[in-house]
Amino acid sequence: MTAKERREQLISVSRALFAQKGFEGTSVEEIASRAEVSKPVVYEHFGGKEGIYAVVVDREIEALTQALTGALTAGGHPKVLLERTALALLTYIETHEDGFRILVRDSPVAQATGTFSSLIGDVATQVEHLLADQFKRRDLDPRIAPIYAQMLVGMVALTGQYWLDARQPKKAEVAAHLVNLAWNGLSGLERRPSLPTATLT
């Protein structure tokens, strides 16, 4: 193998192991054994387990970011954007199952700017601007758009985590149910929602 081919092989092997066992449960010895190389080869390419993990996470973050950003910036009616974004996340999960498992796992070496949580926060910021515009059109206070953006993106992200293992119903049906709850809920927002006093005691 060329150095580039060997590097890609090590990334592929490590990605599968990190998805299966997590960061802590994976060792350099196991990566080397699965790749049929010696431990020094792994250290030569990545400097250790942390280095190869960082590369794997960066690649997955980039792939998911591109998918979600593409869905959000393509334009169109807000309901269409919601449909597109839900499908984009579920499609990513379907085609990058190992990568998504790695992203949603906590790791001691994950940086604050390179985690699933930070990515979801970035997506929520984009959604916030879209919601603020819709709130203004519906004579709702746009200053509350950020919290609704977090709710909406969180709902889609957590549903994606559930669907990762359940895989039922089919992707398009899950997306349709997500949109049904989110859109029909959003379309009937009260201007000043409150909880009945009886529920607060």
- Indicate the mean pLDDT: 89
Backbone shape: elongated
Which residues form runs of ≥5 with pLDDT under 50?
none
Number of beta-strand segments: 0
Helix share, percent? over 70%
Number of helices: 9
For the terminal residues, how far apart are their CA atoms? Answer: 68 Å
User: What share of the residues does DSSP label as strand, in percent?
Assistant: under 5%
Order of helices and strands: HHHHHHHHH
- The secondary structure category is mainly alpha
Rg (CA only): 20 Å
Largest sheet: none
Question: How would you describe this protein?
Answer:
The protein is mainly alpha-helical. Helix 1 (3-21) packs across helix 2 (28-35), helix 4 (49-73) packs across helix 6 and helix 5 packs antiparallel against helix 9. The protein has helices at residues 3-21, 28-35, 39-46, 49-73, 78-95, 97-104, 116-137, 145-166, 171-187. The mean pLDDT is 89. It starts with a helix and ends in a 14-residue tail after the last helix.
In short:
By secondary structure, the protein is mainly alpha-helical.
Observed structural traits:
single chain; about 200 residues; mainly alpha; elongated
List the helices and strands and how they pair.
Blueprint: H1 3-21, H2 28-35, H3 39-46, H4 49-73, H5 78-95, H6 97-104, H7 116-137, H8 145-166, H9 171-187
Helix pairs in contact: 1-2, 1-4, 1-6, 2-3, 3-4, 4-5, 4-6, 4-7, 5-6, 5-8, 5-9, 7-8
